[in-house]
Amino acid sequence: MRELRARWSALAEGVDAATPAHRDRAVDALRAFAILGVVLGHWLVTALTTADGGLSTASPLAYTGGLAPVSWVFQTLAVFFLVGGQVATRGYASARARGDSYRTWVGGRLGRLLRPVAAVLLLWTIAVGGILIGGVGFATVQTLVKLVLSPLWFLLVYGALTAATPLAARIHPLWPLAVVAGVDLWRFGLGGPEWAGWVNVAAGWLVPYTLGAAWSRGAFARRGPALLLFAAGVVAAAALILWGGYPASMVGVPGASVSNLNPPTLAAVAFGLAQCGLALLVREPLGRAMRRPGAWATVALVNLSAMTVFLWHQTAMMAVTALGLLAPFDLPGLHTVPDSLAWIPARLLWLPVFAAALTVCWAAFRVYERGDRPMPQHTPRLVAGSHRATAKVREITHA
Question: What is the separation, in whole angstroms, between the first and last Cα of the chain?
Fold first, then answer.
């Protein structure tokens, strides 16, 4: 154990020393927290139960309305889009200054998204064929595939906004916010069609993305605008939930007539504004915390495999759940219906197991996110390769 701590300390010191002094470490920390928030949120509010004979999804939010605040903590996508807009806008400006073409810049960024996606789709195409041949019910297979594919909508939107960065950087956040408000007024106030809500998939996430672009231009250099953004978001979200008829949960709840997330509603966007304001307010103390080598190395390594973690976390949960079926009884917190508060502590006990399974997936598939630049396999090699690891982190986050 002492040797392992020494190796980690050496790695952390190496990554810290190799990091440029001008690097905004808070940006990387916010991205890491956003990804981990989504992962933990899915693990806490998504259950695979055997109540219907096969495997089907359920959520504790559908049984216990008082758990809605859990979604306020772990629904962190707005922060990811905020950081994405900031990094992409700054990276595109740097690429133009170097003389790189738009095609070169966008090809590099989208390639880092598509490589790990291709690995997920290939493995699950093979797995689905084997599962069906093995006689597993179609309803169960459909449930599993839906959980695997559900994170991909986020990457599709993120990829589209990334490709549109030169245009998105010129858009004021109030314009997409007005589109979201208009669509919701049409849907909920004027009896418009439900399909109109899908316009908000682009407009809703364009709001934090354009805020990130404004951040890259120095719009939030002072705390005042960030504080105003946070306060306005909190007040608007609270008003929409208390008096506007929007649900309190910021994620989809099975059986609910309205979802704040699929597609995004005005309440979800207002909540996202509050999250973005809070993220901008804490960036300075967060940046100071990242001056500690251990904290910074952890964040840097999470960012190095952010898409791998995001894409495989559902697979890790499903693998543990499937293996648990070998037990002669339903395992509490894993296969049982989340219809009581007792399910929550039982579920928490499974989180380290999910994390261990995700580590296995990370070890097997992280190479697809890195492309042609291999990462060392063992801790001693990680120490020797700390400069290469840091250089790769810089490429991913600022290209």
Answer: 37
One-letter-per-residue 3-state SS of 34-94: HHHHHHHHHHHHCEEECCCCCCEEECHHHCCHHHHHHHHHHCCHHHHHHHHHHHHHHHHHH
Tell me whether residue 281 is exposed, middle or buried, using C-beta atoms within 10 angstroms of its C-beta: 0 to 12, 13 to 18, 19 or more: middle
Neighbouring C-beta atoms of residue 356, cutoff 10 Å: 11
> How many C-beta atoms surround the C-beta of residue 243 within 10 A?
8
Angle (nearest 5°) at CA 397 between 219 and 40: 95
Express each pLDDT in 108-157 by its tens digit.
888 888 888 988 999 999 988 988 888 888 888 888 888 888 888 888 99
Question: What is the spatial distance between Cα 315 and Cα 70, in angstroms, rounded to a whole number?
Answer: 22
| Residues 6+ away with beta carbon under 8 Å from 282 | 26
Residues near 354 by Cβ (< 8 Å), separated by ≥ 6? 43, 313, 316, 317, 320
Model confidence, pTM: 0.89
Q: What angle do CA 295, 300, 301 make, to 5 degrees?
A: 100
DSSP string, 171-240: S-THHHHHHHHHHHIIIIIS---GGGGGHHHHHHHHHHHHHHHHHHTTTTSSHHHHHHHHHHHHHHHHHH
Q: What is the pLDDT of residue 56?
A: 85
Distance from C-alpha of 111 to C-alpha of 395, rounded to nearest angstrom = 13
- Cis ω for the linkage preceding 263 (within 30 of 0): yes
Token reading at 341 = 């508060």
Sorted by where each begins, the domain ranges of the chain are 25-371
Q: Which amino acid is at 64?
A: T
Most distant CA pair in the chain: distance in Å?
A: 66
Consecutive sets of 10 residues in the chain, 399 residues long: mean pLDDT of each? 80 85 90 93 89 81 86 93 94 88 89 86 90 84 88 89 93 96 94 90 96 94 94 97 93 85 94 97 93 91 89 93 88 90 93 96 85 43 44 45
Amino acid at 238: A
Measured distance CA(144)–CA(139) in Å, rounded: 9
Contact 46, 351 (CB under 8 A): no
* Interatomic CA distance for residues 295 and 292, integer angstroms: 6
